[in-house]
């Protein structure tokens, strides 16, 4: 008997056994926990490419640590010396963690969102239940957040193994929530924008080339923002990557950061996340109720 047939028999048996919850009870549960239910659906879908995700989550930070510690980092240490008071690997590692999760979230919040509305129409099926469009929007983001908690945690473990997080573990571990918050600060607005699109074109390619890559290269990842010409500093100021990187460096090696700067960086990331989620909920509700 196939797995599909087996699951159908089990469902039928449950219905006839009288142990299945009442429809009203299931509806109340969906109304209360719909975002978590949809997040579970997305996470179950990710199982189809679990091994590529794991390989990416482990392989990329290892390659970065080797390249920056043994390759470029060694040259910088010999030529320039300490950067921000630490060796180059320690300086660049937290920024790479932040940049990696932001690049990953740009993939999760573009084509999969379009697929939910148009190609696979996965967003439409839950509407037959008590799940609200707002819960679908939040559930998709929640599933991505859970993935990036694990991805950031793996990155942090590899950083510690390479000696790139000299702060005490309890402090350097804060780089994980910082990385996740940075991902949501970029991912939630991107999700809202992707949800407005009714037809695929060059928009997502434009975002990758002219938004994501400039943030990766010019938002203080590989060198301090102050090292860039003054007229390019705005790239960092408007970039979640720079704000997240500043907080990540504070966590991993205690980079100097005033209380005001800390509040500005944290406030910027929180504001982007909340604003993006609010707009995403409105767009999802309008499109799925129309």
A few lines on this structure:
The chain has 290 residues and is mostly helical. The protein has one domain.
Kindly list the characteristics that best describe this protein.
12 helices; mainly alpha
What is this structure's SSE topology?
Layout: H1 3-17, H2 23-46, H3 50-79, H4 88-108, H5 111-119, H6 133-161, H7 169-172, H8 175-196, H9 203-218, H10 233-237, H11 240-253, H12 259-289
Helix pairs in contact: 2-6, 3-4, 3-6, 4-6, 4-8, 4-9, 4-11, 6-8, 6-12, 8-11, 8-12, 11-12
Write up what this structure looks like:
The chain has 290 residues and is mainly α. It has one domain (23-289). Helix content is 76%, strand content 0%. It is built from twelve helices and no strands. It has helices spanning 3-17, 23-46, 50-79, 88-108, 111-119, 133-161, 169-172, 175-196, 203-218, 233-237, 240-253, 259-289. Helix 3 runs antiparallel to helix 4 (88-108) and helix 4 crosses helix 11 (240-253). The chain is elongated, with a radius of gyration of 22 Å. Mean pLDDT is 87; it is low at 1-9.
Largest sheet: none
Low-confidence stretches: 1-9
Q: Please tell me what the overall shape is.
A: elongated
Distance between the termini: 41 Å
What is the N-to-C order of secondary-structure elements (H for helix, E for strand)?
A: HHHHHHHHHHHH
Helix content: over 70%
Structural class: mainly alpha
Task: Tell me the count of domains.
Answer: 1
Strand portion, in percent? under 5%
